[in-house]
Structures are given as C-alpha cells and as structure tokens.
Amino acid sequence: MKHLLKSMLFVSFLGLFLLPIGLESVFAQATEKNRVRLKLDYVKIIGQESYLNIGAIAKVGTSMENVPGLQMDVYYEWEGEEVAVGTTKTNMDGKSKFVLPALETMKADTSNTYTFGISFNGNDLFRKASKTVSIKDAAISTDLVTKDSINYVQAKLTDASTQLPLAERSLKVQVQRLIRPLRIGEEFNYTNESGTIIVPVEAGIPGLDGNLTLEVVLSDSDEYGTVKAVVDAPYGVPIIQDTSFEKRALWGPRSKTPIFILIFTIFLILATCGPIVYLIRNLYKITKS
User: Fold this and answer.
1) pLDDT tens for residues 29-73?
2) Per-residue three-class SS string for 210-278
3) Is 119 in contact with 110 (CB distance < 8 Å)?
4) DSSP string covering the chain, please?
5) 15: exposed, middle or buried (C-beta count within 10 Å: 0-12, 13-18, 19+)?
6) What is the arithmetic mean of pLDDT over 76-84?
7) Which of 181, 222, 251, 280 is 20 to 30 A from 54 via CA?
8) Are 66 and 56 in contact (CB under 8 A)?
C-alpha cells in the first residue's frame, strides 16, 4: 500500500513538471508564425535610374495575400559580407520600389556580377525571410534611322562592364501609352552578332505633337535583369485636339445647349401650359358667377 502511494505521488509530481512544458508546446503551435514569400527583380532605365521591384505575399488561410507595411533592409553582397544600402517598406499592395545608388558606387565580384538582397527580420505575425538577385550591368544604345521613306529604330545591346555586344538576346520595341504599351515589330527581335536589332516603326501611330516615346526593353533576363532604353521619335501622326466641347452641340454640357433646342423647348412649355392656364381662369370665373 505504501509502495502504491509513493508511486502515485511520484506520478503527480512528474505531471506538475511536465504540464507547463505541454502547455507551452500547445501555445507555440497555436501562435505559429506565417511564412513570407519575397519577390525581387532588378530594373534599369538607361540614363535615368536603377531600382529593385519588391513584392511580399503570404498564405493566409487558403489564399495568398499581399503583405503591406513589411519593413526590410536592402543590401549588396561583396566578399561574403552584406553592405547596407537602405531600408524600404511595402505599400498596401504588398509592393515596394527601392531606387539604387549608381552601380559605380557599389562593388561587383570578379565576374562583374552584383548581388542585391532584401532581408525581413520577422515580427509577431511572420517569420524572418530574405531574397537575393544577381545581375550584370547591361547597356542599350538607340538610333533613329530613315531608309526609303520608312522609319526605323536601331538598338544595340552590350555588356556595360566589358563593352562586348550581346548576341541572340530578345528585345521588345514598344510605344509608351497611358495604360499599356503598344508593341511594334516582331514578337521576338533577336540581336545579331554585333548585338544590334533594327525595327520599323509603323506609320499612322498617333502621338502628341507627332512625337512617339519608344522603348527598347530587355525583359526579365536571368543574367541582366530588365533593362530599358527610352527615346523620343518624331514618327507619329499629330493628335488633332477636339475643340467641339466648347461649341453648342447635343453632346455638350447644359451651358452649351443649341439655341434651336432652347427655343423649341420653351415653345413646347408654353403650348402645354397655355391651355391649362386658360381652363383654370374660366373655372375661376364660373365659381365667381
């Protein structure tokens, strides 16, 4: 009997020690943090800026949701170390654009490759995460050419570090538009051995004052990222401004209603209300008599 009592007391004490551990495990499982998935792309606009396109999403329940307000450190890697460049925060769409300093102010490795990274240190809701992208520096030069009354845009793609042409690379040529750019030329314009393409610009494309803003784009290259050159070309058809809005017309505002409609409307009102007024007047005379 004494042996059984001692065993029961031992099990009770053991349970008291193990209970907090079990509760801590259950609480930890209940407050498990979500995983953030980061997206990182490099974009360079010739003569303007280079920047990182950053995105953050996480699985919430059964769907993937954008993560706003995520604070991240931006850096580049050199000789195994992370050199800080700045910080950024995602907007309400879970995206951020971080403008980079000039590449000349940063250091590349022996293969002329730059490695950029973003790092999220974690918070109460999400675990820490990081993402890197490695790119080389590329350049696109453009020229406007006219042959046999046909307008062309000529572009040359080179490695900015070695100045060597980049052959067999697909470049897109497009016209800037407010919502979506207008593609021109072939679907795939591959550079030749000298890194050059020449694409005709179709006639009849409307442009402000007859000017078109052309873009030559190396898109989502695994080695160079996205590189874009922008050039203005006087190849468009001038947009004729519609001044009919200031004239009196059926499609104009109330203040620009055509005169004949105003006169006709007034006539209809008088023609409709006149007999009614006449009848009311006669009824009033009858009641008085």
Assistant:
1) 445 778 899 999 999 999 999 999 999 999 887 888 999 999 999
2) HCEEEEEEEEEECCCEEEEEEEEECCCEECCCCCHHHCCCCCCCHHHCCHHHHHHHHHHHHHHHHHHHH
3) no
4) -HHHHHHHHHHHHHHHHHHHHHHHHHHHHHTPPBPEEEEEEEEEETTTEEEEEEEEEEEETTEEEE--S-EEEEEEEETTEEEEEEEEE--TTSEEEEEPPPGGGS---TTSEEEEEEEE---SSB--EEEEEEEE-EEEEEEEEEETTEEEEEEEEEETTT--B--S-EEEEEE--SSS-EEEEEEEEE--TTSEEEEEPPTT-EEGGG-EEEEEEEEEETTTEEEEEEEEES-SEEPPP--GGGS--TTS-GGG--HHHHHHHHHHHHHHHHHHHHHHHHHHHHHH-
5) exposed
6) 92
7) 181
8) yes
Please identify which residue in the block is written with the tokens 């699985």.
Answer: 59
Cα(210)–Cα(45) distance, integer angstroms: 24
141 contacts 231 by C-beta, under 8 angstroms:
no
Rounded Cα distance between 131 and 82, Å, is 13
Q: End-to-end alpha-carbon separation of the chain, Å?
A: 125
What's the residue count for the chain? Answer: 289
Give 108's contacts (C-beta < 8 A, 6+ positions apart): 78, 114, 136, 137, 161
The two tokens of residue 256 are 């620009």
What pTM value is reported for the model? 0.73
Greatest CA separation found in the chain? Answer: 126
